[in-house]
TrEMBL record:
GO MF: zinc ion binding
Chain ranges of the C2H2-type domain: 254-284
Keywords (A to Z) from UniProt: Metal-binding, Nucleus, Transcription, Zinc, Zinc-finger
Protein name per Swiss-Prot or TrEMBL: C2H2-type domain-containing protein
Swiss-Prot/TrEMBL GO biological process terms: transcription by RNA polymerase III
Region (Disordered): 1-53, 883-917
Length: 1013
């Protein structure tokens, strides 16, 4: 494929040597890569003359086929066309002969031009006398590589009009007979299925009619290309298979009816046609109970009928219930048919209850003792893997031993069957989640704080200035609009329907149905979103947001001397809708703020004013701790330019060790101050007295502070044996922290002993980022792992590693979340265990898996649900069509090296590449976002052609979930826009509960309002 290397033409002498000696040393593997000897002068001159006479290759495909049919030896082939002209000759002949061509030496058919050229040069088989007939460029039916269809029987002209392809499989005598029968006046009308806008003339001769019909009629499969593809999908399966099989007898490959992709086998073609450019609702679906085939949109209706039919059959069964109960389970176990059943069976004139008979005895009584019974072997009663029970089967093939001697069990990826598989177990799972969350709340609220945190008293922060003085207050967001379906139109400017937001302002958008999304513009690329564990007295949630100052370089020119800003917003929930407004902006003088993390501790009483303790990571390497109460900042404003900006002193300042001050060197008086490495990630332990804080610095070390000891001398966890620097930290449960490394490795350390207790480095499981939900799970989520093989574009997934096991090992649970190119962040809701993930593809995926168990779970659940909550597609303006055509033509016309530039050619504009928009100002004028809220938008993608250097404004870098009864997910990224969506799975809807007859009650009032939606 692609380019072919020009081959040195062989002379007649070389061809003779090869022909006479098949085992010549020139064709051996040892001499194939050796340098070739230069040809004699006379041979070189003859080759130059041949090449000079053939500067251009002007043969048509039919001429190539006629030229190829005259070849009979390798010498004729090499002397006819030198170099690349040989492959061009073969390529033209292949096109003229329908895609396949025989070797003129051995008559072996090949379908590739380069493959046939290489085969001819190596082929030594003498051509047989009976197979020397050259191929004729008449019709593609002459390719006798496949078995022809048996001649059909035509009974009426209507049959021939409905299926004209039957004409192709009858002989000429029968064709004339049919024409004379149906057109006795010799005025023949073409009965082929014509294409739109095509008409055939009236024929007045049987001979001309036969020639016309032979060329005009095509196999029935080709008549459905284009607008009739949907009609083809609705046809009977056997009829579709026959049409494809008939078309494959005359064509080596068939195109897809929608996209034109070529297939050489009917099974792959039919499977692709059923799914190509088809919405999720029209995708084929097969019932896993009865095998009925339909579409996904009708799957729920069929499941209702399937369940009802099963109940009717069970109620109406009489004597046949004995045979129906004789399944594999009964025969293998030897148990009774129906324990406690009242039915009886008569055996040898004696009535016996079924409960006293085994399946084997009942079957012998029915079929008679003279017939033998083949009983399947009993299955081995081996223990199954269970996370809730902490059981890892040692004999399983999915169990492996890690380098440190621990057992590792990896589950299979749970199949997501249109969000229906195992959904009846989801309400029970949510009940266990709520029980586990209540237990955690009671235990954590009773825990005390360490003395350093108790010394921090509530305070009131004074306003130093208004938000009008902030550097980003005058910025405007990129345009965005909400869409129901993909817009394939081209625009030469940003559409007028797009909205824009000023900094520190928000808006709520609505779909055609009752579905909403709240959008807020934060003034720059969003780095961190963190929701406070406690709310305001009016149930407003406090959301802390950290942004970058620059869209191109993110951190700006001098991050250590820049001002650090943390935005605080107030989030209000109203059923399925939400609103958000800015509260105040926190300013610090310790350089740029790179991360913010709340201590996940609920307040001990309802009268407590505490909202939470906030840890802030700075570019100067200091960790700042603030206490925020609902009385800390009392003023607020509705005008984005009048938001209060406060600059309080940190309640605690945690410094890193300073080894550079102990090297004995003296610093100059006017020298710039030296700072430790910036802090990029924070983890705060909620157990015990909340005294352990772990932060990862830019040098790749994990700094561990114990607030009960000296805060000036923390322990730096930095091992010389690490293959890469640490990137993120997250506390699992208790005193174990998970450290993820840039080279996709995760280690779990005990902060009390600084010892590694677990290591996970498996490809596509371990990633460079680890997140946790300590309220529910004793494990961590891993993302930013290796790409999955065979996906286009490449995908990355999310895995959950459960570290709590009674056996000396751990479990790995692959989740359904997969993002194109990169998965940036993962967060789990503490209310319903929904895992939210965001990625570079601009999607927010919500999933839940029954294997993610809590302390309240007694069994594992086998369901896996997935939902697309948000899809953002980046769009760009297009150049006018005239300019695009001129540019395309100029790129196709390659100037010759020998041509001299004409007068005035130096003044002509140079050909330019497609322009990219990499700054915020350029993005405002040339890019915009299309927002999709419907779950069917998972197949939508941003325009990637010629835009690899554009600013990835659709990328979502961080995600967070709240702690209220009604869960919401917050996400944001490169565009500086924060999106807020409900963090729920469709399994909570009453429709699913009614479908599976599962009662599900909840004490949550907002859920009751969602029935109308």
């Amino acid at each position: 494929m692609g380019r072919t290397r020009p081959q040195v033409p062989q002379t007649s002498k070389t061809a003779a040597e090869i022909e006479g000696s098949p085992k010549s040393p020139t064709s051996t593997r040892a001499t194939r890569g050796a340098p070739k000897r230069s040809a004699p002068p006379e041979e070189t001159e003859s080759h130059d003359d041949a090449s000079s006479t053939m500067q251009e290759f002007n043969l048509t495909n039919d001429a190539c086929l006629r030229t190829y049919s005259t070849l009979s030896s390798l010498q004729d082939f090499t002397n006819a066309f030198p170099g690349n002209f040989q492959e061009k000759l073969i390529r033209g002949a292949l096109k003229a002969n329908g895609g396949a061509l025989p070797c003129f030496l051995c008559q072996k058919f090949l379908i590739s031009s380069s493959g046939l050229v290489l085969h001819i040069r190596k082929c030594r088989g003498p051509p047989s006398a009976e197979s020397m007939e050259p191929p004729k460029p008449t019709r593609q039916q002459l390719i006798a590589r496949r078995r022809l269809i048996t001649a059909p029987t035509i009974t009426s002209f209507e049959q021939l009009k409905e299926e004209p392809s039957l004409w192709l499989y009858i002989d000429d005598d029968q064709k004339i007979k049919l024409l004379k029968e149906y057109f006795p006046d010799e005025r023949i009308e073409c009965f082929a299925i014509s294409k739109p806008g095509q008409s055939c003339p009236l024929l007045t001769s049987y001979k001309d009619a036969i020639e016309h019909l032979d060329s005009c009629i095509q196999p029935m499969y080709f008549t459905y290309i284009g607008d009739r593809a949907a009609e083809f999908r609705k046809m009977d399966k056997k009829l579709r298979s026959r049409y494809v099989r008939e078309a494959l007898t005359t064509h080596l490959q068939l195109p897809c009816l929608e996209c034109g992709r070529l297939f050489g086998h009917r099974y792959g073609l039919l499977y692709h046609v059923d799914r190509c450019n088809v919405s999720d609702e029209e995708m084929p679906w097969k019932c896993y109970r009865c095998g009925y085939s339909t579409t996904r949109s009708l799957s729920c209706d069929h499941l209702r009928q399937c369940w009802s039919k099963r109940d009717v059959l069970v109620a109406e069964e009489d004597v046949s219930n004995v045979m129906g109960a004789l399944g594999d389970v009964n025969l293998r176990s030897g148990k009774s048919i129906l324990k406690g059943a009242n039915e009886t069976i008569t055996i040898n004139g004696e009535a016996k209850p079924l409960s006293e008979l085994s399946a084997k005895e009942a079957l012998e009584a029915i079929i008679g003792p003279e017939n033998s019974i083949v009983v399947p072997k009993k299955r081995r009663s081996t223990a199954r893997a269970s996370i809730s029970a902490g059981v890892i089967p040692s004999s399983s093939t999915r169990m492996s031993i890690t380098g440190d001697g621990k057992m590792r069990f990896r589950f299979r990826k749970a199949d997501v069957r249109a969000g229906v598989s195992g959904i009846s177990e989801y309400p029970k799972y949510v009940e266990n989640i709520k029980k586990a969350h209540d237990i955690w709340m009671q235990e954590t609220a009773a825990l005390p704080y360490c003395s350093r945190l108790l010394d921090i008293k509530p305070s009131v922060w004074k306003t130093t200035c208004k938000s009008a003085r902030l550097p980003f207050i005058s910025k405007e967001s990129v345009g965005f609009r909400i869409r129901e379906s993909e817009d394939k139109n081209s625009y030469q400017e940003v559409p007028q329907s797009c909205q824009r937001l000023q900094a520190l302002s928000s808006v709520e958008l609505k779909r055609e149905i009752h579905d909403y999304v709240t959008i807020a513009y934060c003034g720059g690329p969003i780095n961190t979103i963190s929701v406070a564990p406690n709310a305001m007295p009016n149930d407003e949630e406090v959301v802390a947001i950290v942004t970058y100052p620059c869209e191109t370089t993110l951190v700006g020119k001098d991050m250590k001397n820049s001002q650090g800003l943390v935005q605080f917003w107030l989030h209000t929930i109203d059923g399925l809708r939400s609103k958000i407004r800015p509260w105040f902006v926190l300013k610090s003088n310790f350089g740029l703020i790179l991360n913010a993390h709340w201590l996940d501790r609920p307040k001990s009483s309802e009268n407590d004013t505490l909202i939470g303790f906030l840890a802030v990571a700075t570019a100067q390497g200091a960790l700042l701790i603030y206490r925020l109460d609902n009385t800390t900042v009392s003023t607020t404003a509705s005008d984005p330019k009048k938001i209060p900006v406060v600059e309080p002193e940190p309640s605690l300042i945690l410094q890193q060790p300073k080894p550079w001050l102990t090297d004995g060197r003296t610093r100059e008086e006017n020298a710039e101050p030296q700072y430790p490495p910036p802090l990029t990630s924070i983890a705060w332990c909620t157990r015990d007295e909340a005294q352990y804080i772990v932060a990862v610095n830019a040098a790749g070390g994990a700094v561990i502070w114990d607030l009960q000891r000296s805060v000036d001398a923390p322990y730096v966890l930095l091992d010389s044996g690490w293959c890469s620097p640490a990137a993120h930290a997250a506390f699992i449960c208790g005193f174990e922290v998970a450290l993820s490394f840039r080279e996709r490795l995760i280690r779990v350390y005990d902060v009390r002993t600084y010892q590694c207790v677990l290591e996970e480095s498996t490809v596509r499981t371990a990633g460079s980022r680890a997140t946790t939900q300590p309220r529910l799970f004793s494990g961590f989520f891993s993302c930013q792992s290796e790409y999955f093989v065979g996906t286009d574009p490449p995908n990355t997934g999310v895995s959950f590693i459960c570290t709590d096991s009674k056996a000396d090992g751990f479990f790995v649970v692959p989740l359904a979340n997969r993002h194109e190119l990169m998965t940036w962040d993962v967060s789990a809701s503490s209310q319903n265990a929904v895992i939210a993930s965001c990625g570079l593809d601009g999607k927010v995926l919500l999933s839940t898996n029954g294997r993610l168990v809590t302390i309240a779970n007694t069994v594992d659940f086998g369901f896996s649900l997935l939902k697309t909550a948000l899809t953002i597609v980046r769009r760009r303006i297009t150049e006018p069509e005239e300019e695009s055509l001129k540019e395309l033509v100029s790129k196709m016309e390659t100037p010759q090296e020998t041509e001299q530039p004409a007068d005035g050619a130096a003044d002509q504009p140079k050909r330019r590449a497609t322009r990219s928009y990499a700054t915020h100002e350029e993005s405002l004028q040339n890019l915009w976002l299309d927002i999709f809220l419907n779950p069917d938008s998972k197949n939508l993608r941003s325009q990637r052609k010629l835009t690899s250097l554009d600013l990835r404004i659709e990328s979502l870098n961080c995600v967070a979930t709240n702690y209220r009864t009604r869960p919401f997910v917050f996400t944001g990224g490169q565009a500086g826009l924060m999106f807020i969506r409900p963090c729920v799975i469709d399994g909570e809807s009453p429709l699913i509960n009614e479908l599976y007859h599962v009662p599900f009650e909840t004490n949550e009032k907002p859920l009751g309002k969602s029935k109308k939606a």
